Amino acid sequence: MKDTNDPAEPGKAAGKAAGGAKGPDELRRQIQETRGQLGDTVEELAAKADMKARARARGAELKGKASEAGHAVQDKAAQAGHVVQDKATEAGHVVQGKAVEAGHVMQDKAVQAGHVVQSRATQAGHAVQDNVPRPVRTAVTNAVQAGKRHPGPVLIAGAGAVVAVGLLRRRHNGHH
What we know:
mainly alpha
């Protein structure tokens, strides 16, 4: 939309001002309008010529863009951190589960080994009991019952009897 007083068309503006004004009031109005347009044009040209202000404006624009980019990178880093933390937590739970599983396996094996040892000890006890002569078994049984009533002296006597039986047995089997 071109104004009839546009300085790009000097012939029109001059012709209108010279021949188109219908009196001094009209001429003053046209002069005032032309001055306003010239002032705007001068301000625009001054702004374009002011490199310092343009550089500041461009710097502020770039600073804003850099700040936005920084926030975007920061947000992505935070998201990545959360993902890594979640994966580490998940891996920790997996390791913990496997450790618990291994603990249960070891516990089961220990229980089984305990049963085997207990069974073998019971078998050995029965074998010893079956091979000990009846008078010795009776003496031991009496000693145990007496030991329950009077534990001190009977334990000493019982220990002596066990040692004596062991020595007798050793001699009987030919060991000296």
